[in-house]
């Protein structure tokens, strides 16, 4: 077999990495090389995000160490039974690529994952060595995200946080039954055990930083995970339940959702068609409601239909308001912040502006029009100095009135 060039390897392994959505670079510590030490940055103009057509962040050099894999996960294009072109980088090659791309201002960090070659621990060692070369031999101060392998030796998983800004361990699928069926080489208890180990190491690292000034930083961006949506029979309610449990148990920074995409030579147990991308979008919105809007998981699930699926034509916040109309209208001049956050069409920033403005005067409908994109969406659910919805809130056709027109492009993380 002919030896692949670096460019050919990059084409194969960058394309193989595109299915992992958890590559955002937020949440880490601020550092740069303006003082003359090292190279790279994690702030200001350092992290320059780019977005794929489907909205995924691809601002980092996002690549696999190798797409060889000894596992046979049905949904993975790189599974051992897949007939794909294989390639493999050495740790030094990935480090050299990262530095070369950084110096050309193409990227400001590295997102590194890998298939499993030889063994989980061997692969994890190779990924850690890549990060070590960048940090210790080249003084790289940019962003590094390492995808850790739960089947690897626990000490290796812990060591990843010494060089990485963020670590992540994918739970893969929302339910244990789905994981057992589609990823027979993986174990839900083992994945959660690795996440628990990482959480303990994160807490120890933060405690050490408080007690010892020069203690090394340990994964300052925390840990995240990803779930594949639509590969198994899990409903949106199942996914919301799983995500809320992960947030509570492991203090995750983010749970990412990735809509299943059909792959070449797919297994017969997989769906023939991908789920609507809007379903992924609605799950991100539901995640936002729990993290920033004060909704309990039960309340978000209440926005779903009897089958546990969130509506695709309206966002979950609006679906909740339509289902529980007895909680509305909300008086914008008197209601506390937590109730204002439940008004469809009002985001966190708009609510903060309302709270500030109403200290000076009573707010009218025209004031709210300056704070929201769609006053039509807000009006049925609020009371202002010059406005009461009267019977509008109880109209049978209210959903048709407030739903966005068909074909309208929605904001990725709109209220």
UniProtKB/TrEMBL annotation:
Radical SAM core domain location? 64-182
- Pfam families in the record, alphabetically? Radical_SAM
- Record's InterPro entries? Aldolase_TIM (IPR013785), DNA_rSAM_put (IPR023874), Endo/Exo/Phosphatase_dom_1 (IPR051675), rSAM (IPR007197), rSAM_sf (IPR058240), RuvA_2-like (IPR010994)
SUPFAM superfamilies on file = Radical SAM enzymes (SSF102114), RuvA domain 2-like (SSF47781)
- Which keywords are on file for this protein? Iron, Iron-sulfur, Metal-binding, S-adenosyl-L-methionine
Give the residues annotated as coiled coil. none
Tell me the cofactors it needs. [4Fe-4S] cluster
Q: Does the keyword Aminoacyl-tRNA synthetase apply?
A: no
- Tell me the GO molecular function terms: catalytic activity; iron-sulfur cluster binding; metal ion binding
Record flagged with keyword Ion transport = no
This one is known as: Radical SAM family protein
């Amino acid at each position: 077999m002919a030896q692949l060039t670096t460019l050919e390897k990059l084409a194969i392994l960058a394309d193989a990495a595109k299915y992992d959505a958890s590559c955002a670079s937020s949440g880490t510590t601020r550092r740069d090389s303006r003082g003359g030490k090292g190279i790279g940055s994690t702030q200001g103009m350092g992290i320059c995000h780019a977005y794929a057509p489907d909205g995924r962040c691809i601002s980092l050099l996002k690549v696999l160490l190798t797409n060889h894999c000894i596992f046979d996960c049905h949904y993975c294009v790189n599974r051992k039974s897949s007939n794909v072109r294989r390639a493999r980088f050495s740790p030094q090659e990935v480090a050299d690529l990262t530095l070369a791309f950084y110096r050309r201002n193409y990227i400001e960090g590295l997102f590194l994952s890998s298939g499993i070659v030889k063994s989980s621990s061997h692969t994890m060692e190779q990924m850690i060595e890549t990060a070590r070369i960048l940090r210790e031999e080249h003084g790289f101060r940019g962003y590094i995200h390492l995808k850790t392998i739960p089947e690897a030796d626990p000490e290796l998983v812990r060591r990843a946080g010494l060089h990485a800004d963020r670590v992540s361990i994918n739970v893969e699928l929302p339910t244990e039954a789905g994981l057992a069926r589609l990823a027979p080489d993986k174990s839900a208890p083992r994945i959660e055990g690795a996440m628990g180990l990482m959480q303990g190491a994160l807490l120890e690292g933060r405690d050490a930083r408080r007690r010892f000034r020069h203690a090394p930083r340990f994964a300052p961006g925390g840990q995240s995970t990803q779930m594949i949506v639509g590969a198994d029979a899990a409903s949106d309610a199942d996914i919301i339940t799983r995500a809320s449990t992960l947030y509570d148990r492991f203090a995750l920074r983010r749970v990412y959702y990735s809509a299943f995409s059909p792959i070449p030579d797919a297994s017969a147990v997989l769906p023939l068609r991908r789920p609507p991308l809007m379903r992924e979008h609605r799950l991100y919105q539901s995640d936002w409601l729990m993290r920033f809007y004060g909704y309990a998981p039960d309340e978000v699930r209440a926005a779903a239909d009897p089958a546990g699926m969130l509506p695709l034509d309206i966002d979950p916040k609006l679906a909740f308001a339509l289902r529980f109309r007895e909680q509305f209208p909300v008086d914008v001049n008197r209601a506390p912040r937590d109730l204002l956050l439940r008004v469809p069409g009002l985001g966190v920033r708009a609510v903060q502006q309302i709270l500030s403005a109403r200290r000076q005067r009573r707010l009218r409908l025209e004031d709210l029009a300056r704070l929201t994109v769609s006053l039509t969406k807000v009006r049925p659910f609020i009371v202002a100095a010059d406005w009461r919805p009267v019977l509008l809130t109880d109209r049978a056709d209210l959903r048709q009135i407030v739903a966005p027109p068909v074909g309208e492009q929605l904001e990725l993380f709109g209220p």
